Please model this.
Amino acid sequence: MHRYHRLGTIPPKRHITLRRADGLLHYEELIGNRGFSGPSSLLYHLYMPTAISSSEVVKEVKPEAEPNRDLRNRHFDTAKVECGPSLTRDRVPLLFNSDVTLSLARPTATDTAFARNGQADEMIYVAEGAGTLESAFGDIAYRQGDYVVVPRGIVHRFVLGQGPHRYLVFESGDYVRAPRRYRGDHGQLLEGAPYSERDFRLPENLRARDEKGSFGILVKAHDLLTRITLDHHPFDVVGWDGYYYPYAFSIHDFEPKVGRTHLPPPVHQTFEADGYVICSFCPRPYDFDKDAIPAPYAHTNAMSDEMIFYASATFMSRKDVSFGSITLHPDGLPHGPQPGRTEASVGAKWTDELAVMLDTFKPLQVAKGLLEAEHPSYWRSWV
Ligand SMILES: [Fe+2]
Model:
């Protein structure tokens, strides 16, 4: 995140004593990315965060690519993808490259183990469901439409509330952030940005858990899930401060921009990371020139693969998409509105579309688990 935050009790300066009621020292921990050069936070634990008593590999979680790599525009129905009950263990990879992996999860029960992703930032788009993200930084309540961002290395647990739950999980090689052009020299979000600091929900309700016992954490690193065990509850933090913590942003708080004629996808950009961007297509008035064509022109995405997840059943330029559909328009081919959609958009005043777009700069591979969900004739739907 791009702003300083603090919760609980911390000492007046860094790296000095902070004593418990019994006189013992708290254990200070720095967590941040890019060595000591990226954003970081300092946490004050009741117990040693390094006291790992066991470690065992649970399973390999490397995505497997489809055997044949046909070049065509593609459409998948994620409702047909089978997922197991666990968010951490049973997410199913859909699309991936070396910068980002997109998976689907349909958890039905809160994981008993805690989770830590050591190889990627996680951004979870909550297509359906609600609950609370717990971590040593405090709690964040989440609901449908939220992007919940958990920077790498942070131990956390998604406590499931009202279901059903359908989550799109983006695992990011680089760290997820607001686009640079939205921020001023000092990191503040500028007036022209499509959201402000007030729209980002930060951890609250910090409670240091003083519990000894056996606490399992599933750690993802090297494309493996490893179960480590701590002898104390991992959320034993009495206070923290810094720039590195989980946060949530609702797609419903994204303020869309509208022009007299069509504006290109970068006006919908929500997040950036090296290698890709995330955009949000939200309900909005259409372009207001009397002759405007609100549907996009055909476009050839050179140096970019485009994935769109349809978070509602409406989308101006597509027919036959439904909630949960994914389209993949790869580099090397043009795509655009299907026959009739351009004409139908002329004179339209409003769209209720809701969609999440991932544009990658390197090609995406289709994972085996997505193949059965493919609409085989989509690529010919412009003919
Ligand atoms: Fe496109």
